[in-house]
Design goal:
12 strands, alpha/beta, Aminopeptidase, four-stranded antiparallel beta sheet, Alpha-Beta Plaits, binds zinc ion
């Protein structure tokens, strides 16, 4: 352990926790996190970073610090969007504290080691995928490693996620009186047929595939043949390539339904598609080493079974990335709950913030100091498929 890193994080512990607490008390949902962005930017400025707010997306930011010596670029990612009803029930306020703390920790040694530190504020993870917009804008293309830690009920090195494609099907038929149905075309019938057709697909999908959908609009009154119906679906699978293949089959299901009912069909991508996560096992190994040195217990290996979807996927195909987990609540506490939100400001939350920030800063310092290690990380990134 480098004493300077530990000292820098500990000196900032109270101010970082006060940021975490302020976000807990004033949770802001995705793309509305203006106050959170402003307070994180302020803290980074005070700590000697050059900061740009409204970066790529309105509530995105980037803090940069370059040492006089050339070297690799290490990025720490912050999330700070909350959820409706449960506030910071996913603990993104703590992700932000850890990211800023890691930046401050690494800055304490980077002048000696060389290189550049980026602390990137990536908003709206839960709904709009700030990282996807940033990845598309090329933000991660020149980054050597992008790292973050998410609060959890266990310590872990990360895990696979599902690629996700959100599709909307809209059917346009013709209104008619319920007693003169022959004069109309039912958009609801088209939606019902699509629902059935897609359900029949399920037998023929790869393992770890999830299809969930709803009928959003199915008519206005029982005695009116519905002229409009719409459905929203999530298609998830182990890779984006497969999810696209599956989406094509689902589109055929909707086309068949439109044909059968004489309705017009419009298909659109109604939310942000998420890539699956490309795991970098070398970075995971480095995090494990850091967690062990900090005395963290029961560190879970990389979870190979995909669970959920996250916008970190977009980053992971642009540069080597790490999305670790740190325990801040007892097992059994549910994600996306008020209990999880409360854990972010508990003593366990504070311990997680300190350990997370030190672990990431240390990992960054190792990557700068040890070119062979960074080479291995990059080699794995280029050669692994997903
Ligand atoms: Zn969440
Ligand atoms: Zn989350």
């Amino acid at each position: 352990m480098r004493d300077e890193i530990k000292k820098a994080v500990m000196e900032n512990k109270d101010s970082l926790m006060s940021l975490v607490r302020r976000m807990y008390e004033h949770p802001e949902i995705g793309n509305e996190e203006f106050e959170s962005m402003a307070m994180l930017a302020e803290k980074l400025k005070e700590s000697g970073f050059e900061v740009e707010t409204g970066y790529v997306v309105p509530t995105g930011f980037i803090g940069r610090y370059s040492s006089p010596k050339k070297g690799p670029t290490i990025a720490f990612l912050c999330e700070y969007d909350a959820l409706p009803e449960v506030g910071h029930g996913c603990g993104h306020n703590l992700i932000a504290g850890i990211g800023v703390g890691a930046g401050i920790g690494l800055k304490s040694v980077v002048d000696k080691l060389g290189g550049q530190i980026l602390v990137i504020g990536t908003p709206a993870e839960e709904n709009f995928g700030g990282k996807v917009s940033m990845a598309e804008a090329g933000v991660f293309d020149a980054v050597d490693a992008a790292m973050m830690i998410h609060p959890s009920t266990e310590n872990g090195l990360g895990g696979r996620t599902n690629a996700l494609n959100p599709l909307k099907f809209e059917f346009f038929g013709k209104n008619a009186h319920g007693c003169r149905p022959q004069e109309g075309k039912s958009a609801l019938d088209a939606a019902v047929l699509t629902y059935i057709n897609i359900n029949l697909l399920r037998q023929f999908v790869q393992p770890d595939t999830y299809i969930h959908g709803i009928i959003r609009n199915g008519g206005e009154a029982a005695n009116v043949i519905p002229a409009y119906a719409s459905m929203e679906y999530y298609f998830r699978g182990t890779t984006m390539a497969y999810v696209q293949e599956l989406s094509e089959k689902a589109k055929k299901c909707a086309e068949a339904a439109a044909l059968a009912t004489g309705c017009e069909l419009k298909i659109s991508v109604y939310e942000c598609p998420y890539d699956d996560v490309k795991i970098n096992y070398t970075l995971c190994g480095l995090l494990k080493e850091k967690y062990e040195a900090l005395g963290l217990q029961e560190i879970q290996d990389v979870r190979e079974t995909p669970r959920g979807s996250s916008d970190i996927g977009a980053v992971s195909y642009r540069c080597p990335s790490l999305h670790g987990y740190i325990q801040i609540a007892e097992k059994g506490v549910a994600g996306h709950s008020k209990e999880m939100a409360a854990a972010t400001i508990s003593s366990m939350g504070e311990a997680g913030l300190i350990a997370g920030a030190i672990a990431l800063a240390e990992a960054g310092a190792d990557l700068i100091e040890n070119p062979a290690l960074l080479q291995k990380v990059k080699q794995e990134f280029t050669t692994s498929q997903h």
